[in-house]
Amino acid sequence: MHPERDNVIHLRAGGVSVVFDARRALPRVLHWGADLGDLSTEELDAFALIAGPSQLHNSPDEPRAFTVWPTQFDGWSGTPAITGHRAGVATTPRVALDRVERDLEPDGGTGITFWLTDRVSLLEIRLTYRLTTQGLVEVQSTVRSTAEAESAVYDLGSVLTLMPVPTRAGEIVDFTGKWCRERSPQRGPLRDGSYTRNVRRGKPGADTPYLLMVGTPDFGFRHGEIWATHVAWSGDQTWLAERLPEGAGGSSSVLGGGEALVPGEIRLAAGESYTSPVTVFGWSDSGMDGLADRMHARLRARPQHPKSPRPLVLNTWEAVYFDHDIDLLSELTDLAAEVGIERVVLDDGWFGGRRNDAAGLGDWTVSADAWPNGLHALVDRVRAHGMSFGLWFEPEMVNLDSDLARLHPEWILAPSAGVGPSARHQYVLDIARPDSFAYLLEHIDSLVTEYAIDFIKWDHNRDLLEAVMREPSGDIPGVHRQTAALYALIDELRVRHPALEIESCSAGGGRIDLGILDRTDRVWASDCNDPIERQAIQQWTGLLLPPELVGSHVGAARSHTTARVADAPYRFITALFASAGVEWDLTATTSEELASVKVWAALYKEFRGLIHSGRSVHADLLDDAVQLHGSVAQDGSHALFAWVRLATSGAGQAGLTQIPGLDPSRNYAVRVRTDLGEPSLHQGLGPGWFEAARAGSLTVSGHVLSTVGLTMPTLNPSQALLLEFTAV
Questions:
Q1: What DSSP state is assigned to residue 54?
Q2: Does CATH number 2.60.40.1180 belong to domain 616-727?
Q3: Tens-digit pLDDT profile for residues 365-421
Q4: What residue stretches are annotated with the Glycosyl hydrolase family 36 N-terminal domain (predicted)?
Q5: Bridge partners of 640?
């Protein structure tokens, strides 16, 4: 019935192999990485011998194996797959394989489910590995209590998914950050011991590990072998890379993660179960761009992935802030239509007593003071111009100075002893309560219906601290339930309004993960529109997300968040390689500035089909003061690149720079696109090819461009250049 039960099991898809040895009491992970080809049963048996561990001195008499559910019973001294207890006992799991189910996916992916039984902890475990057509491994487990009804509950401490990586993976990269500087990489050697990142903010946060990568030394965008993981969950998380002196079976280290649980958060009575978040694992032998290819392809394969061109957005926040004057907003709307905007989003300040950020959150009715006749006049004006309409919400938060908090103080997610310090004058609404959940659903649903809202900017501006639910029996942990309730709320809104698009915003880019992306259509990468900061933020955000999901807006010349001043072309080019928009008071611009926005809007519409479907590529450069990144059509026929200078360099000229991602078998017409103006050079004349490309008369082979490159002009700081390559 289960022919895989006593075999070496080989999963293959997307140029990746995963091999399990299911011939023992508990399956072992033998390989995750490069495709091994079509191996016979005999070859797989031989592979199991090759990939197996040694029996070391001063170690268990049976060689330590790395199983699908590693515990100390297998000789594993690292972080276990599960921790927990039943009233202080049953802390030494003894897990054995019960049965195996092989799954063939309709799209060409493949998978396998191991059913495990823990006779000590009295648990049944369903552990599913899915190898997608993109070559990603998605792992999820369900733990169910099989105890008798009168037995003590099982207090689950942690459930983690771990995968082995080989010895040559000696370097680790993950991310940290803060508000307006999200996804800042940090890099170092992979050493013995545990490298663990625990996220305890109730959301991934601006300092999220985001994508934990280990790889061959000095791996870059275009070179090196990489193994990576991502925890697809919007609540608390644990990420780890771990190396022990004795290794992990035949491998050197492990990589993985899962939900970070607090004591008492998951308590399983008889028959109850817990299902972990999906942990996604990716492998690449062509650097970080190769890993991004897999991640982007996964997201683009979603049935709900945006199919229509991503509209050019105007968001009102940095234009008007809380000044919701209908005349000003009407003028702004007219100018938006004039320059080519396709969607207007009304940001914070439209509801309740929300005249500043200290009041009104939770009162999701249109303000009678700011909008005595409702939003219809503005919405009708937007639609009369042929544009769609979006509205800002922050459903999970509440101000104490609000009708909702005064009426329902018990709805605040806080201890019975009283609320702690506020953050941005706000607290967290306990949306896992059926009554508060119903309140939000009713109010958001009615507004979406009344105004036929096309788009919601869904914000979440503070961490969840002391996040406990007040119950008659006492305060119980609330982050897991809060996260599940968020998913359920968005899911129900999408059922009621299938065409509604939602953007995940969390004080900028504080909640970007594949769990929230299963339910949303865009993320706000950062509250910072400063193009210098944005270049780095978007570069690293793009490791996981394709450009069409990453919101990036052009702000005023003087940045709202850094006070840095940047030229318009630099701001425009930065936002071009994303889901673009404007966050700028167009009513205060000159006629020349408006004309430049119009030119940029046309350029975005010309290239968004390429940018939002192509491969994102990055050059590996020794000089951190410059970047070369672009979008290349999947068939290599067309490409657009940005050559960006962040600061001055010691060298007088940049020299030859390889153009990544082009088809070496094709010839390309090279064109410098100066639609947005001429870049400022930090030299007398540009290289010889530069003038020819500006005139549109340069043709170069893809082989030369990708292996030799172009001598790039030296730009002044905060300048950027657009290069278009068209196969001829």
A1: P
A2: yes
A3: 999 999 999 999 999 999 999 999 999 999 999 999 999 999 999 999 999 999 999
A4: 26-269
A5: 631, 724
SS3 per residue for 605-623: HHHHHHHCCCEEEECCCCC
| DSSP classification of residue 429 | B
Structure tokens at 669: 């017409």
| Gap between the terminal Cα atoms of the chain | 57
Q: Can you name the residues that pair with 229 across neighbouring β-strands?
A: 212, 281
Q: Each residue of 623-641: b (16+ CB within 10 Å) or e?
A: eebbbbbbbbbeebbbbbb
Domain boundaries, the chain: 77-300, 313-398+431-462+499-614, 616-727
Token pair of 603 as six digits: 């350029």
The span from the CA of 549 to the CA of 613, in Å, is 11
For residue 1, is pLDDT > 70?
no
Q: Name which of 566, 625, 544, 536 is nearest 180 in CA terms.
A: 536
313-315 vs 579-583, strand pairing mode: parallel
C-alpha distances out from residue 237 to 210, 402, 440, 566, Å: 10, 32, 26, 37
Q: What is the pLDDT of residues 134-166, one digit of tens each?
A: 999 999 999 999 999 888 999 999 999 999 999
* Alpha carbons 124 and 118: distance in angstroms, whole number: 6
User: Please, what's the b/e burial string for 671-699 (b: 16 or more CB within 10 A of its CB; e: otherwise)?
Assistant: bbbeebeebeebeeebbebbebbbeeebe
Separation between Cα atoms, residue 569 and residue 678, nearest integer Å = 9
Q: What letter represents residue 121's amino acid?
A: S
Joined together, the tokens standing for residue 370 give: 């700011």
Element (H, E) at 289: helix 287-300
Can 459 be counted among the known catalytic residues? yes
Task: Please say whether the structural domain 77-300 has been given the CATH code 3.20.20.140.
Answer: no
Cβ-contact 412, 405 below 8 angstroms: yes
At residue 5, the pLDDT reads 67
Angle at 423 between CA 419 and CA 428, to 5 degrees: 55
From the list 21, 363, 521, 527, the catalytic residue is: 527
**CA-CA distance, 490 to 488, in Å (whole number)?**
6
Which one of 459, 513, 521, 585 is the catalytic residue?
Answer: 459
The span from the CA of 429 to the CA of 437, in Å, is: 9
| 3-state SS, residue 415 | coil
Q: Which helix (H) or strand (E) holds 116?
A: strand 110-118
Bridge partners (DSSP) of residue 278 are: 232
For residue 631, the one-letter residue type is S
Cα angle for residues 613, 615, 618 (degrees, 5° grid): 140
Could you tell me the CA-to-CA distances from 628 to 149, 342, 581 in Å, in that order? 62, 29, 22
Architecture of domain 313-398+431-462+499-614: Alpha-Beta Barrel (3.20)
pLDDT at 272: 97
Pairing of strands 455-458, 501-504: parallel
